[in-house]
Structure formats: structure tokens, C-alpha cells
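Preliminary data (for renewal application), nicotinamide-adenine-dinucleotide complex.
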Amino acid sequence: MAKKSIQIVEPKGRLGVLIPGMGAVATTFIAGVEAIRRQLGRPFGSLTQMGTIRLGKRTEKRTPRIKDFIPLAELDDLIFAGWDLFRDNCYEAALKAGVLERSLLDQVKDFLSQIRPLPAVFEQKYVKNLHGENVKKGKTKMDLAHQLMDDIQQFKKSTGVSRLVMIWCASTETFLKAGAVHQNLAAFEKGLRSNNPDIAPSMIYAYAALKLGVPFANGAPNLTVDIPALRELALRNGVPICGKDFKTGQTLMKTIIAPGLKARLLGLHGWFSTNILGNRDGEVLDDPGSFRTKEESKLSVLEYILQPELYPELYKGFCHKVRINYYPPRGDNKEGWDNLDIFGWLGYPMQIKIDFLCRDSILAAPLVLDLVLFLDLAQRCPVMARKGIQEWLSFYFKSPMCAPNLYPEHDLFIQLMKLKNTLRHLRGQELITHLGLEYYD
Ligand SMILES: NC(=O)c1ccc[n+]([C@@H]2O[C@H](COP(=O)([O-])OP(=O)(O)OC[C@H]3O[C@@H](n4cnc5c(N)ncnc54)[C@H](O)[C@@H]3O)[C@@H](O)[C@H]2O)c1
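Predicted structure:
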């Protein structure tokens, strides 16, 4: 029986997409949206654009497209702005990133060249391998936060957008553990005023967004918005947040395969993963500090999915290694190898080898689009917005944010079910349990 649907404000007017970091992922996303708007390409990989959702019983045959089922912003309504420490406009940055072909970029050059990055909030110690000149100056980190807020308000005024979303697509910052300054909002704001060294640039962007009521998604593994102080601000202002680290490439494969091994109770002795990639992201990750942030994000996935504490005979003490090698000739076309040493009936060993020739930003761009549209949806739905963390968006992340007393859900299939059931819940539709006994009465 259908329940009452939850109030969602209609998406009237245009939606501003604010992006710190206009590199490979951001430009592939922006150029892609424009190419799709001009019917030069299709939005493969995007759940909001191509996905469907089953409603009611299988016999009812009701399976609308997600975008027809919930009120999402239209692609035509998206308008972009961003920050970067390099001055290249979006066309130049996309050419340098080398993901999309020049022949496609040239067809949207007029649009892309108009998008010029604003000066970034940047601190060398957080991204050691980059040196750019398009950087804001300010006496304190609080000054810098105010400059970002001015940028946002100026963009809103000059474009007339009715709503905004911010999504971090900038480089991975060096490894940082939450410390005293991150524990509550008062300490954090004091730290901004006193230039506390533990406040990373990404946190300053997130603070500026949340202060202005702008939802924030974190596409990198940095702590950023995943600290008590910024969760407090999100709750206080009723702003949706989510993160961390887009789930693409090798980790996507892990969260597809590991649930299958566990479902069949096949054991694991070890999982060795190595990558070669040659884009700027790879260059940044060549620094041990930035790599450590990424490594933590990549390593936790298997532990959570396989639950060694529940299945010690199958998974206790399995060996898990992840390597990332910066290898410039490959550019954005990463190659990821996995070797899995598994065992089955009576302990007999077997192996699985995966060689994934993927394109990082091609996998990431549709995630950026979905996150932008879903975060905007959450902001227009007061019941969702006031919860702060949007755990139903775990589907998109390597290290999903969740309430402090929970463990994150990593299994891609549970994540998808959670996402779709959340949409059903918002629209007052029955949740799908897959019980199905009634068909046999
Ligand atoms: N491509 C993927 O599949 C994928 C998957 C998961 C996570 N990520 C993460 O997404 C982020 C972007 O990846 P990418 O391939 O586009 O990298 P990229 O190096 O091409 O782009 C990042 C951009 O951020 C800029 N930048 C760095 N610090 C900044 C700051 N403080 N303010 C503004 N700009 C800043 C850099 O100058 C660069 O242009 C990285 O953190 C990466 O780890 C990417």
C-alpha cells in the first residue's frame, strides 16, 4: 500500500555547480554535460539520466526512469563555476587533461573557454607536487573562507541561479587525522581565525559552502567535511553533505566482486592490487602523504565487506595490498591489475586475475553529475536536508560517510538498494523487499 510522499520543493530556476579543482574529472564532467545537451553524446554511467526504478510488484510492470519519478534539475539548468591554482580555462584544462578527444572538445569550445577558474585557496604543504599561481591571499584562513563566500555570492548574483551545490574535484590532500581543532564548530572557527595548521584548504571550501547553505560533496579521500565541526555546521544549517572519494576503477571492481565471494562463502588469502596511471592525479599521488590518504580509503573497503570478525575461517588476516604507480605515458587511461588468492571446498586454492583498462575520469564524470542532482534534490527536501550526512549516496564513494556510531556500507548492491529505497520512500512507494511469497499463494 502506498504511503504519503514526502515534501520536495520543485526544482525551479537554474542550479549552480561550484567545483573546487578544475582538472580531469571536473572538465570531463562539464564538457560531457554540454556535449550531451548538444546531443553529441549520451550520459552512459549516470543513474539519474539512464537508470530506472521498479515500483510495486513485479507483475505490475511499473518501472519508470528515475528522472521521471523524482523531480531532479534538468541538464539544461546546470551552470558551472570553479576554482583552480592554474589559470587555464576549462577548454585548455580539458585539452591538457587529455581525456576527451580534441574533435569533441572543439565542438563545445565556445562554452568551455568561458569558464575560467577563480583563484584557489591553496596551501603547498597539503599538495606537495603542485605549484600554481592562481591562489588567493589572506591574513587568516577565516579571511580566505570569506573570500570564497564572496565568490559564491557574486556568482549567484551574476547568473541568477536559484540553487547551488559544491563538489570537491580537486587534488587529494596529504594524510590528516581529525584533531582537537576539528572536534566542534567553535574550535574550528577559532582555528580559522588563528590560522591553525590542521585546517586544510578543502575544509575552508566546505565551511564556506555550509555557511551559505550550499550542499557539499567530497570526491577525494581527504577528511574535509567528515569532521565533527563541519558535521555540526551541516546539521545546524540543515545542509546535505556526502563523501568521500569517488568509487571508480579498481575499488568499484572490488565492491562488485567481494560481495559475490562472500555470498558464496569463498575464502580469501590475499588480494593484491596495483595500478599505473599518468594523469595529474597520479602525479599528486606520487607524494607519500597524498598516497597515504588514498591508501586508507582504498584499503578499508574489503574489511567492511568481508566481515572477518563474523567469518574468521574465511577472511581473518587476509593480505591486502594496494599500489599506485605514476607512469606518465598512460595519461588518464589507467590500468589496474588485481590478483586474488581465494579458496573453496576443503580449502582448495584458486586464483582470479583482473586487468581493468579503464578511463578514470570517464568513470568519475557520471558520478559527479548524479551527486550534483541528488544533493540538490536532498536540499529541496527538508526531511533529508536536516539530516546532514546523506548515507543513501554511499553508492558513489570509496569511503562513504555515515553517522559516527555506524560502520559504512561498502557493498555496491546494498548501496544501490539503499539509494533506490530512499527514492521510493521519498515518493511514498512501498520499499522493495524481494520476499515475493505472495506470487505462490
Ligand atoms: N578520476 C577518478 O576516477 C577519481 C576517483 C576517485 C577520486 N578522484 C579524486 O578526484 C580528484 C580529482 O581528480 P582528477 O583526476 O581530476 O585530478 P586532476 O589533478 O586532474 O585535477 C585536480 C585539480 O585540482 C586542482 N587543485 C588542487 N588543489 C586545489 C585547491 N586547493 N583549490 C582548487 N583547486 C585545486 C589542481 O590544480 C588540479 O587542476 C582527485 O582528488 C582524485 O583523487 C578521482
